[in-house]
Amino acid sequence: MQAEAAILAPSGAADLIRQAAALIFDVDGTLAETEELHRQAFNHAFSHHGLGWEWDRAVYKDLLRVTGGKERMRAYHARLRIAAPLSDADIAELHRIKTAHYAGLIETGCCPLRPGVAELLAAAQARGQRLAIATTTSHGNIDALLSQALGTRWAADFDVVVAGDDVQHKKPAPDVYLEVLARLKLDASDCVAIEDSANGLIAASRANIPVLITRSMFFRDDDFSDAQAVLDDLAGIG
To answer: What is the CA radius of gyration of the chain?
Structure first.
């Protein structure tokens, strides 16, 4: 059973948020429950490519410990112990098909922002707080989600957006957070990271940024004992 000693009440979480100079958001699972759509998109790509792979929710939950879509496919292939590895070109094509299908699913409007997210973004802007994104996903996936949820000019509301391909190492390495801090020109203690997974918590913590966790569908059972606050969602803390 995870320790809960460091977890704040919702009122304390709201204070933590309001005192920050900048809020740094993860994307998948944090801004919206996107992981199920990613899973469906991966399976579409596998079927299209004739691989015969099918990731059910249990398999996908386990694979989410590997950050990055391309890395996830390589990890799964390695588990199958097939002699000939997929080439970089094969991986790239699978990822291209997957990304295009994911964007199509998002465009249907089936994946709204999680409770409290839009209100928190608006309140933070009204307070003059800076907004940033630190994620493992791609710029294309970020744009697909936020163009649908916030409008096509969404990027104007964020001072900094750092994606997985912008840095050498993906979460749980701290690279994306260190890059965000460098671009914001802020100290870690002036910011709050909003995450939904243990890998995200570890990444932000390694950059010495306080972390608020909003539990998501696939990561609810992760160990969040090092977080400053753990909530079911962001409703009411703006």
So the answer is: 18
